[in-house]
Amino acid sequence: MTSGPADATDPELTTPAARRGRCFGDGDPLYAAYHDDEWGRAVHGEHELFERMSLEAFQSGLAWITILRKRPAFREAFAGFDPRVVAGFGNDDVARLLADERIVRNRAKVAATIANARALLTLWESGRTLDELFWSFAPTGTRARPVTWENVPSRTDGSTALARALKAAGFRFVGPTTAYAAMQACGLVDDHLAGCPVVTR
C-alpha cells in the first residue's frame, strides 16, 4: 500500500468529480492538501525522513488517510520524531505509546520505530546519513507518469534494493512495499497520474 493512491479505492475519494481533478484526495480537505503540498515532492533531512519512514511503517495494513489524521498525535507522542529522543525511549515510553488511543497502538510498529531511531544514530556514528542512503536509490532519468492506478507498482527493483540496504543498516519494518511507498511520498518517484494537475518538480 502507498501513502496516497492506495486509498483511491475509497468511495468517498473517488467520485467522478474527484477523478476529474486531483488523482486522489478531492473528497477530503486534509487529504487534498497532502496531495497538493507533500506527496511526490522531494523530502530531505534526517528528522523529516525518519518521520516519513516511521509513518509509512505505521500505515502498513491501513489506509494512509488514517495515519494522516493521526499525524499530529504521532508527532506529539514521538517527540517530533527526533531520532535522538526516540532512541532513548524505554519500557515506560512503550507502555505510554500503547495506551495512547490517538495513535496506532501496535507493539511491533512501536518497537520498530524505536529500533529505527537507534539504527539511525548508529548510521550517523559511521559517518553516513539517512538522507544520502535513501536518496542513493532515486531512479535516474525521467519517466512518464502512470495513466491509471493499475499502472502503479507496489514495489520495484529499486525499492527492494532500498529495503535491503535499510535492513542491513539495522532498520526494521522496511520491506520493499513500504520502501516504495516512502519513495513515492518523498519524491524519489512521481506517481501522480498523467491527468493530475499537480506539478511536483
What do you see in this structure?
This protein is an all-alpha fold and 201 residues long. The chain has a single domain, classed as Hypothetical protein, domain 2 (Endonuclease III, domain 1), CATH 1.10.340. 51% of the residues lie in helices and 0% in strands. It contains 10 helices and no strands. It is globular and about 50 Å long. About 6% of the residues have low confidence.
Q: What fraction, in percent, of the residue positions are helical?
A: 40-55%
User: CATH architecture, please?
Assistant: Orthogonal Bundle
Secondary-structure element series: HHHHHHHHHH
The domain tally reads 1
Main pleated sheet = none
CATH topology group: Endonuclease III, domain 1
For CATH, the homologous superfamily is named as Hypothetical protein, domain 2
**Backbone structural class:** mainly alpha
Quickly list its features.
201 residues, mainly alpha, Endonuclease III, domain 1, 10 helices, globular
Topology:
Layout (H helix, E strand, L loop, with lengths): L15 H5 L8 H9 L8 H14 L4 H14 L5 H5 L3 H8 L8 H19 L4 H6 L21 H12 L7 H10 L16
Give a short overview:
The chain is mainly α and about 200 residues long. The chain contains 10 helices and no strands.
